[in-house]
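If you are new to this repository, start here. Below is one unmodified record pulled from the training split, so you can see the exact layout before writing a loader.
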Amino acid sequence: MTEKTLAKTDPVSDLQDRMIKELETVIDPELRIDLINLGLVYGLSLTDGVATVTMTLTTMGCPITQVLTQMIETSLKRLPEVNDVAIDLVWEPAWSPARMSRFARVALGYHQ
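And here is the target side for that same chain:
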């Protein structure tokens, strides 16, 4: 079996991919880049219908935390497996622009 075939038949990988796709629709209103490309999402899991998103923010005390939480909940609840969403907000490891994808760095004009 090839790697590609394995990934298609692995329900955990499929669900994780679909969760990531949904989170790619959550755009940070200030930076106008999605949470995945910003590197804010550190982990995803689903247990008994509850999707847990382990993530950080670009700064502590971010004024849009509640907005992002609502957007995350809305996006993940589109998946039939997700009944509820829990956000596990962490500050370690600290976020830095190095966590951004190449796309996000180019879009934001960050060259380093």
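Two things worth knowing about this chain: The first strand starts at residue 41 and ends at 47. Residues 1-7 have pLDDT under 50 and may be disordered.
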